[in-house]
Specification:
TIM Barrel, binds phosphoenolpyruvate
């Protein structure tokens, strides 16, 4: 991790936890992360628990992120939520382009190119997820895939806003599988993502935070977080338990 960039540890709850379970979790988490100086901590609950979590984390170091949003301000988009609806309840940011949204719900790079600037314009911090499938890695197409996603998804963002985005490198074969990228694989891919940002602005490449995601657990977090280009982690399964999530936060200090 670079000392110039504040690490972010964000927990993606996916479709887990009722409001009551979320309250129980946050009551257990807050005392465990209260002394995590120099680390930003985020939780990404389902939509229905967002407002309760914003309320319960007020005054703490824990930020609340949504898991997706629509690019339009409003309109006939049944089931969708706009950026302004998230900021109205003081949500801090939003995950965009998670591989589950891309694969299961058809989220496209074209939509993401609109979502990233829409999130920033509303005052949300986007966490843009990118990453290759197992097939793509085996074919030697990892860099091609990352180049495509980073270039397309950030295409409509002015250069001077690039550093305001958080990018999560999440190799799809490592998500929810227990199969974690090696430190070499993670560092190489994340340095490549940063170099893609540098192609547009060297200054912003020094600012942009790039997280690793994919089977991060308390016992592998420290090694991954110590890598020079890794600025934190997006955590799925291990973020559902307050003690294990807090242990990952502690590894970032
Ligand atoms: C994720 O869903 O973003 C993720 C990284 O999940 P897990 O940590 O469970 O692999």
């Amino acid at each position: 991790m670079s000392s110039d960039r504040t690490p972010l540890i964000a927990g993606n709850w996916k479709m887990h936890k009722s409001i009551a379970e979320a309250e129980e979790f946050i009551a257990a988490l807050l005392p465990r992360v209260s002394d995590a100086e120099g680390v930003e901590v985020g939780i990404c609950p389902p939509f229905l628990a967002l407002q309760a979590m914003v309320h319960s984390t007020r005054g703490s170091r824990v930020q609340v992120f949504a898991q997706t949003m629509h690019q339009a301000d409003h309109g006939a988009f049944t089931g969708e939520v706009a950026a302004s609806m998230l900021t109205e309840i003081d949500v801090h940011g939003v995950i965009l382009g998670h591989s589950e949204r891309r694969e299961l719900f058809g989220e496209t790079d074209r939509a993401l190119a609109l979502k990233v600037p829409a999130a920033l314009a509303a005052g949300l911090t986007p966490i843009l997820c990118v990453g290759e499938t197992e097939d793509e890695r085996e074919r030697g197409d990892t860099q091609r895939k990352l180049r495509h996603q980073v270039q397309e998804d950030l295409a409509r963002l002015p250069d001077d806003r690039l550093g305001d985005v958080v990018i999560a490198y999440e190799p799809i074969w490592a998500i929810g599988t227990g199969q974690v990228a090696t430190p070499e694989q993670a560092q190489e891919a994340i340095a490549f993502v940063r170099a893609l940002v540098a192609d547009r602005s060297r200054e912003q490449a020094g600012r942009v935070r790039v997280l690793y995601g994919g089977s991060v657990k308390p016992d592998n977090a420290a090694e991954l977080l110590a890598l020079p280009d890794v600025d934190g982690a997006l955590v799925g399964g291990a973020s559902l338990d307050a003690a294990s999530f807090a242990a990952i936060v502690a590894a970032a200090r």
